[in-house]
Amino acid sequence: MYERRWPVITAAIVGLVVVALLGWAAGRSSAPSDAAEARAGHEDGGAIRIVEGVPVGVEHSRAGALAAADNYVARAAETIVQDPPTFTRLIRTVWVSAAQPEALANGKRSRRQAPDAVANYEAGGRALAVTAARKLESYNGSRATVLTWGAGFIWGPDKRPTQRWFVGRVKLVWQDDQWSVEALDELTTAAPTPYRVIIGKPGADSAEVFDDVLDGMSAPIYGTGEAP
Q1: Residue 102 is inside which H or E element, if any?
Q2: Considering the domain boundaries, does residue 116 fall inside one?
Q3: Is there a domain that residue 4 lies in?
Q4: Is residue 111 part of a domain?
């Protein structure tokens, strides 16, 4: 899984220590149905509103902070290498203004440092990133800190499917009626990682199966319906 330490959210995104997550950019611009569902969810009291394809945390509560962190971490992980325009929109929309220049500069640096990943995506490769679990470490109404356990999956025409797990910490601030990112770090401690993957059928770990079964699928937008 450490083939090329796919850059995900680099430390300097906010002047921090993240330099080596994945490049999981799955080109995860939300499908129209996902965006429509997100908007409907917000109207019903959901924690997320979609702004130009970016999931924005708009519920001022503990649950809202969790939903914001879920989306921000997963979306950054997927797009930093594969989909620079979407990554840029994410930073411009949900990072605090003071952290944006450094975040964007490190997105460019991550892509330069991951030529194999860039080539894979240009050849038609894909990736998905998900939030598997998380914990609200602190919350006082104006700020929140969330610990996240996530994973990224990447594959392509010349790349067998690969997974990577990580633990990150995101610090949020409530401003302008939304949760914004002040800091995002990957922890240096070992992230829980499965020792073995059970393959149900021969060939299930091939890029062809990934392409066929996951065609048209995208990672979920968290918190679009009932707040967690």
Answers
A1: helix 100-112
A2: yes
A3: no
A4: yes
Look up the domain containing 79 and give its range.
11-213
Total count of domains within the chain? 1
- Report if pTM > 0.85: no
**Residue type for position 203:** G
Mean pLDDT of successive 10-residue stretches along the chain, which has 228 residues: 40 35 36 39 70 96 97 95 96 97 91 95 95 97 97 94 95 98 92 92 94 94 64
Q: Looking at the DSSP assignment, which residues form a beta bridge with residue 130?
A: 151
Give the pLDDT score at 226.
41
3-state secondary structure of 19: coil
* DSSP calls for 152-165: EEEEETTEEEEEEE
Closest CA to 163 of 171, 173, 154: 154
Structure tokens, 220: 């979920």
Residues in Cβ contact with 65 at an 8 Å cutoff, skipping those fewer than 6 apart: 57, 136, 139, 144, 146, 172, 179
140 vs 60, 93, 173, CA distance in Å?
11, 23, 10
Measured distance CA(9)–CA(164) in Å, rounded = 14
